[in-house]
Design brief:
The complex is a heterodimer. By secondary structure, chain A is mainly alpha-helical. Chain A has nine helices and no strands. Chain A has one domain: MetI-like (MetI-like fold, Orthogonal Bundle). The longest helix of chain B has 37 residues. The chains are: A mainly alpha, B mainly alpha.
């Protein structure tokens, strides 16, 4: 008698969870595609000459409040805030995509190598990665970005270093775990080479855990890129980047000029939010797939 | 039984790792700054500087010596607490840092207290009815505070409460019209000790906006971790037993579930906050709070290489100490932790 309503309760609970996660993912995907569209359209219109270039501001008055001609006002060089915010979306997406891809490309093979070979190499790599992991996220990027100077690829390198240890850790542990399974021993005794084992038994496990980490890291990387820009590091001056624009907006803030701060920051917030939503949804999805496989 | 001995052994091995990690971190920073592509002299002076100036700076920084010599110099300096001199004003880097550190610690401490209070309220209010309205709101709060760029959130708070409403000062740490109380460098504490009520009020008024901004941003992490751990513990048998004894749900949560979920919260929150604080401290820049992040920004703008290096090493060292301290604390409280 007692078990039936209880079960009903749990099933409705899990139903509620599913809808929340999938709703979040939907929202995230929609928002994210809006960012992509905004980036593409602003690039297209600028290049067609319908809108002015992002760095053109000489003809406009400086610090003009939002109006019909400049929807989000202009900054201290007379540049259109709206246009720069839109263009910044494309820049952020590119740099973050590049950074996270780099982190996967470096972290995953290192993790497989370390977990598969074991021994001194494994221990040394673990120690180095753990140490990298303890250094606060932004500081590591600051050091590298400070040294490499400004540039899109340089910024991506500076950001990717933060995430390499995470992929390394996940992949290394999974590799070590799978490697100790009996069926791997069986495969080896039947003459399977390391590459075959990695392809056959490891990659599938690894691949399912990476998308979640990837979107979460992408969300985080947007913040790191913004932080770098805010400190005056990261991308070249000519590239419209939210963090750097906020850095420039800071000095005008005490005089009540709000539009140069509000819009770029809000765009950054929205992008991080949408990436986190997608990540949350993916996590629930992957958990579900994994648990239905084991069941 | 042997518990005490095991605990002591664990603490000793954990502490023995500290110098190793510190050595690795400082070596890593050294390696990154010297071996990575790009010349520090170019980074400081720019590519177009003349050759003589470059050579002079190279000699001044000791970069004309072999890499091994530089490395040993750097390490022996670190052991003595010597972080080198600032390029801009020849000030000792260690003096710069010890001047800026109390401001940062004061801000972080107050922010942490605010974060814990808000995080607990939000984390607890959701657990009474999982997936209820409060729980959903709490989860959205957790994601949103994480997604907010800290320095931008600080700008908006500054704009509303300081610029538009004029309730609190825009930035800085102390009213310029008053004389700063001397002592530990923690202005609130110093004002309290010298019973200087005007100074206390002034420093608290300056502290309020930055500390609550940082506190609110960090509270999301707390509420999220607390929620996850409470939910896990509420599934266990002893909670079921407590419920079947007829205890009220609020009592079950507060008396039985909460104490058992505090340890994981302590562990994870400690690590998260230690690493988060790097990014979150950017709000110092927004509020021109004269702490270590603001100093770091100045050093970056002036391309003051030794100061950047020193600040990074010191913050990383602090983080290592905090995480070891939390590990030891958890080990001494939780009987299940063994090594």
């Amino acid at each position: 008698m007692g078990s039936e309503p209880l079960q009903l309760l749990t099933s409705s609970r899990s139903l509620g969870k599913k809808t929340l996660a999938s709703r979040l993912t939907n929202w995230g995907v929609v928002l994210l595609s809006l960012y992509v569209i905004a980036a593409l359209i602003s690039l297209l219109l600028s290049n067609l000459g319908v809108l002015s270039q992002v760095n053109n501001g000489l003809d406009n008055s400086i610090y003009a409040a939002p109006s019909f001609t400049h929807w989000c006002g202009t900054d201290r060089l007379g540049r259109d805030v709206c246009l720069r915010t839109f263009a910044g979306s494309g820049v952020a997406l590119q740099v973050v995509f590049l950074a996270v891809t780099l982190a996967v490309v470096i972290g995953v093979p290192l993790g497989i190598l370390s977990g598969y070979l074991g021994g001194i190499l494994d221990r040394a790599l673990i120690l180095i990665m753990d140490t990298l992991y303890t250094i606060p996220v932004l500081l590591l990027s600051v050091v590298i970005s400070f040294l490499l100077g400004r540039g899109i690829f340089n910024a991506a390198v500076a950001i990717c270093v933060v995430y390499v240890p995470q992929y390394f850790r996940v992949v290394r542990n999974q590799t070590a775990q799978v490697k100790s399974e009996l069926f791997v021993d069986a495969a080896v005794s039947m003459g399977a080479g390391p590459l075959w084992i990695i392809r056959k038994y490891l990659l599938k496990n690894v691949i399912t855990s990476i998308p979640v980490l990837l979107t979460m890291n992408a969300a985080d990387a947007v913040l790191v890129l913004g932080g770098l820009g805010f400190l005056g590091l990261g991308l070249p001056e000519a590239v419209p980047e939210w963090g750097n624009d906020l850095n420039l907006a800071l000095s005008a803030l005490p005089t009540g000029i709000w539009w140069t701060s509000l819009f770029p920051g809000f765009a950054m917030f929205g992008m991080v939010l949408s990436l986190s939503f997608v990540g949350e949804g993916l996590e629930v999805f992957v958990d579900k797939v994994n648990s239905s496989e084991t069941a | 039984m042997d518990r005490k001995e095991a605990l002591i052994r664990y603490c000793v091995t954990r502490l023995a790792l500290v110098p190793l990690m510190l050595w690795l971190i400082s070596s890593l920073v050294f390696l990154l700054l010297r071996v990575a592509p790009g010349d520090p002299v170019d980074a400081i002076l720019g590519n177009r500087a003349n050759q003589e100036a470059k050579e002079a700076l190279r000699t001044k920084l000791g970069l004309d010596q072999t890499i091994w010599h530089q490395y040993l110099d750097y390490l022996s300096g670190l052991i003595k607490g010597d972080l080198g001199q600032a390029l801009t004003n020849q000030e000792e880097v260690s003096a710069i840092i010890s001047k800026a550190l109390p401001a940062t610690l004061e801000l972080s401490l107050f922010a942490l207290i605010i974060a814990i209070i808000i995080g607990f309220i939000i984390g607890l209010s959701g657990t009474a009815r999982p997936d209820g309205k409060l729980d959903l709101l709490g989860r959205i709060y957790g994601i949103s505070t994480y997604a907010l760029p800290p320095f931008w959130a600080a700008m908006i708070v500054q704009l509303v409460f300081a610029v538009w409403l004029g309730w609190l000062p825009v930035g800085g740490r102390f009213p310029p019209s008053l004389l700063q109380p001397q002592g530990s460098g923690f202005l609130v504490l110093d004002s309290l000790c010298s019973r200087n009520w005007a100074a206390l009020q002034g420093s608290l008024r300056h502290l309020l906006l930055p500390a609550s901004t940082l506190g609110i941003l960090l509270s999301g992490v707390f509420s999220r971790i607390l929620r996850i751990n409470l939910a896990r513990i509420l599934q266990t048998d002893f909670i079921e037993a407590a419920r079947s004894r007829g205890l009220k749900e609020s009592q079950v949560i507060i008396r039985h579930a909460l104490p058992n979920s505090l340890l994981p919260v302590l562990t994870i929150a400690g690590i998260t906050i230690a690493s988060l604080i790097g990014g979150a401290l950017l709000i110092e820049v927004t509020f021109s709070w004269p702490g270590i992040a603001l100093r770091l920004k100045e050093a970056i703008n002036q391309r003051d290489y030794p100061v950047v290096q020193g600040i990074v090493v010191v913050i990383a060292t602090l983080v290592v100490f905090i995480s070891v301290l939390i590990d030891l604390l958890v080990a001494s409280i939780d009987p299940r932790v063994r090594y």
